Amino acid sequence: MTILSATDFGAAGDGVTMNTDAIEKAVAKLEKEGGGELVFPAGIFLAGHIRLIDNMTLRLEQGAVLRASGRIADYYLDTTLDLRKYSQHYYFLHGRGLRNVKICGPGIIEGNGHSFWQEEYYCGARFGELPTATSVLQYHVLKPKDERPALIYLADCTQITLEDLTIREAAAYTIWVNSCMDVLIRKIIVRNPSYGPNTDALDIDCSQNVVIENCDIETGDDCVALKSDYHRVESNKSCENIIIRYCHFQSPTCALRIGYEGDGDIRNVLFTDTLIENTKHGIDVLSIVPVCPLRIEHGTTVERCRFANIRMRNVGQAFFIWAGNEPPHTEHSGHLEDFVFENMGIEAVGASFIGCEKQGSIRKLIFRKIRMRVADLPDWAPTTDFSIMPSHWGGWIKAGGLHFHNVSDADLQDCEIKCEQPGFMPVEYSFSKI
Questions:
Q1: I want to staple 161 with a disulfide (CB 3.0 to 4.6 A). Which of 102, 283, 368, 399 is the partner?
Q2: What pLDDT was estimated at residue 254?
Q3: Parallel, antiparallel, or unpaired for β 90-96 and 76-77?
Q4: What are the CA-CA distances from residue 229 to residues 154, 207, 254, 261, 323 (Å)?
């Protein structure tokens, strides 16, 4: 196998030299050889974007830092998309239609995120003016600039491996696999600031046969998001056969989000043996037609999901699950079916919510061996009332431990749910037309 060092083609690890052209020369050489390994030795290598090819390994040795440029003009611009409809069409490490690609460490990929964020939070405060959050219910995020790059973007690829890497300071999505098959993401450490806008760690979109394991993630948005936006790939591909296991997740938003972006099917998901802590929403599942620029026409169908052996500590809501619309009403036709939640120990500060607009949109739920304690926080007022359809962002609810709305097909087996605040029921049901 051909093994090349980036420095052999003029790349300099001084943290100042822009190495895009030198790295492209090395990639072109590997392409002529039919693939091989591109190695970055110790040093800080600044680049605008890096093209990936078939049968390629990109290896960062100990002490190597691959740093993304702070200028949007240096990134690869995806012209296959209607840019008026989609954000994040600039990429750092990128490839489309590839086979057998590996990105590995033990080095670091750095995203230069602050270059693409404003110095102001959405609440109006300037960066650095707000005190450190004292509760998982507090969340302040910086406003993004108009254009931001995704750090790693792979589309229509097969046999992808990402392992033994540290990734930090992503400007937006960190790792985004779209319409890919046979993907292994293992031993990835992600460190994105909690105030970073849209800094999802792992976005799995319309992809099949994906394993995510032994990852340690702290990020500003979803740790893992499973999506089915087939409008972006212009092919009705499902997101299915996903395994997530042996991980540690922390986020001011969601540890695991399933759905929301897309109309395609999501099915056969196993989420197991994972610790979630200091996170607003532990497991968030949405089949929704929202009021936003995203192209969602009828809502996704999510089926056959199992969540087992999960520990949650200091979470806002363990579960937030919704199937329906946001006003003004449109015609939601997706559904959620055949979910099993079992063997979980949970410490939460808000009630979980599982509900749908129309009865029958959520069916066949089993909760087995759930041990959940909801804390008493008298100084915090709830942001969501059960009589009002919840936002897909998941406002927190204090009343009770586990609330079902328009859901009659939920089976609780050997569950123990305790509410420390007096006057609230551990399990509640409501039925109404929203």
A1: 102
A2: 95
A3: antiparallel
A4: 15, 10, 19, 6, 17
